[in-house]
Design a protein that fits this description.
The complex is a heterodimer of chains A (471) and B (434). With 471 residues, chain A is an alpha/beta fold. Chain A has 14 helices and 24 strands. The N and C termini of chain A lie far apart (68 Å). The chains are: A alpha/beta (471), B alpha+beta (434).
Amino acid sequence: MSAQPFDLIIIGAGPGGYVAAIRAAQLGLKTAIVEREHLGGVCLNWGCIPTKALLRSAEVFELMENAKSFGLSCTRVDFDLEKVVKRSRDIAGQLSGGVKYLLKKHKVTVIDGTARLERGAKAPKVIVKDKAGKEATYNAAQVILATGARARTIPAAGLAPDGKFIWTAKEAMTPDVMPKSLLVIGSGAIGIEFASFYNALGADVTVVEMMDRVLPVEDVEISGHAQKAFEKAGMNILTSAQVEKVSSGKESITASIKTKDGKMEEIAAERIILAIGIVGNVENLGLEALGVKTDRTHVVVDEYSRTNVPGLYAIGDLTAPPWLAHKASHEGVICVEKIAGKNPHPLRSGNIPGCTYCRPQVASVGLTEAAAKAAGHTVKVGRFPFMGNGKAIALGEAEGLIKTVFDAKTGELLGAHMIGAEVTELIQGYTIARTLETTEAELMETVFPHPTLSEMMHESVLDAYGKVIHV
Amino acid sequence: MPIKILMPALSPTMEEGTLAKWLVNEGDEIHSGDVIAEIETDKATMEVEAVEEGVLGKILVPGGAENVAINTVIALLLEDGEDASALNDFDVSAPEPILRQAQDEVEGTRPSPVSPPHEPVSQSHPELAASPHPELVSSPHPELVEGEGASRIKASPLAKRLAKEAGLDLASLTGSGPNGRIVKRDIENAPSSLVITTTPAPQAPGSFDLVPLDGMRKVIAARMTESFRDVPHFPLNIDCKLDALLSARKAINEAAADDGIKISVNDFIIRACALALKKAPNANASYTPDGIKLWHDADIAVAVAIDGGLITPVVRQAQHKGLAAISAEVKDLAGRAKARKLMPEEYQGGTFTISNMGMMGIKSFASIINQPQGCIMSVGAGEKRPVVIGNELGIATMMTVTLTCDHRVVDGAIGANFLKYFKAYIENPAMMLL
């Protein structure tokens, strides 16, 4: 077994690794994939998918609570947290099984265990320790690292899971209780999604954000809309605020927070969710011994995911941002195609959309207005509110905004920023536009179906050029 | 059976023309004599009248079509009681042009009835039909057979716009996008050597605008080349004293002003030529292979500059026409010439041509023979010059005319004889009243 040579070994079966493995098999490479826990990785098991299942429960719950506004009645609206979580876990399990099937179908060898690398002939050798502690060595012409990332913690400040009060995403996804009060540290996508979920189910939620606005990577206008919507939904949002320390009590945990004006404030909550970013899983892989170049906790790679060590590649969250599942999958495909001698185009990070599934949803692609100006563009900006869209009103989702940013000189769509119902399903339209390098002219000529939310995408473009109809 | 409407020959020399515009639509009822279309020949726009009656069934040659050979079927007319189904499978081949067929048979190259000779519109390319490269037709790569697809430049809309702004020719770039598509980065990475300067810099040496040859220009080019090459021509100069003519003109115009008559110097020249040709009939001649034609009438063609070229309407039997008649006729002809509304018989078949560039300040020039005419007179400007009168130096208004002669019919003496009479009429205008 240990002598079996592979064309390619991939370490980590998340959305980067398993997609790369399937593509490699399609291209005729004899491929193995090493996974220490679950096929599908964090995305499928502890990230994207199970959280979407939870958020859907929360959304339906909110709709039921709001039944009256639709002319419906729904008495005794309630939820069973255990069942909500079970549904989420079942879906994750179902999809993980799906990945297992796909890998088998493509004759990818799945090796259970934890991998590390040692110096090898052409590419590093892969040593896998299984659950029983037995080690086996595998050789391959090429090795791709796809070990992903995990929640960042700061143990020195007490910001680390403590088995009870402090959760990371993983604990927050399988809550033992429904907390009456919740403190979410960090207002990026992960923090805000959990804040939305628990807020919908009735928790008293406070969000602490170090930056001056929530969802800080988004366009400032979108952040502003989002904060207002969150506050309207009952969240307490503290921006430009920092948790200095936490101290556990018997039934709750107290966070000392330095607020915007420099004062210290103490907030007690039954649970704290840490969502202060991620760190790459670079440890215990033998990278130092191989001399693999890293930048903090991320491996440095080129446009085709090549590390500085021959035969060794890295993709996904282990490498540079954006740390998104779809970015990892695309990198995996590009990396494998390059290995197989194809001529893929490198990923263009400006064309990778980002989605946040809070309520209201947020989605964007390309440059924010501020970033576009900072890059020296003279911009034309279009905006269209959900209030002006028939479908949005019919859905009972009349809050939101679609913003587009164009280069005034060339008509290039520099960026698109959306907040409101289902915008995560809409952003692909602008992503295609960017990928095809369409200008405002083609977008204006495109016929958007009525009645749909997508009409707002058209109107936003029209607005940028002073031709908007429904405002 | 539907009646064929054929491309008419508007003049004996016409081989093809432009079907400028249809004045009727398919389905219109047409009566004999109705004007149904306008046809543009090398020199004029002509109206085409219907000969037969019926309903216009189908237009086969659309308005604006150029180089339509005469006798091409341009439309089908449905006879009384026929419906559109009669048009199906109707053979639209043109009947043989009789004259040309005879010629072609002599040459042994009888054309097939479906492609009349000299018909660029439907010209087939037998060398293509019998292509020695059949693999091109059954290519497994569809992009190779799509003629247009192969030459089409694939570029993103943004790349196209950026290239335009940067002054880059897309054809000079290599695309790095999917399937060689030119994308934004290709424009950004384009070497500056490929940039075509778009600033209002002085025009590159050797640059030009290409004006397409219209029918008139083609005819001028062909006829002038032919004449200058084939006709052994020579010029004869003579100076005429104009003072008497000018005072006569003044007197006539003053006297006849109430009748709206205004005689020009050129009208005098036309009449003088006509009368001189009667006195010197050997100059009113055309060379033909069969012999020298000595024309009975002085049909004086007058060159008129029009937009895009020139045309020579003819004052027929000018020897019988007085100054007032000539004047009125020239005005009418010149006006319609400028509107390109002359009928072919109005500008074809003169026996002698006058080209007057005096009003443009030209002192003297020698025109090219307007075949088959034997002479063309070039008229220079009337101007005051120092002249010897008796033994004294004096001032007179003088006009130099140049007669270009076809030496095959007009020898120097014949030309000089004509000019002697011409000069006499000009200098003694009262003789023209005879």
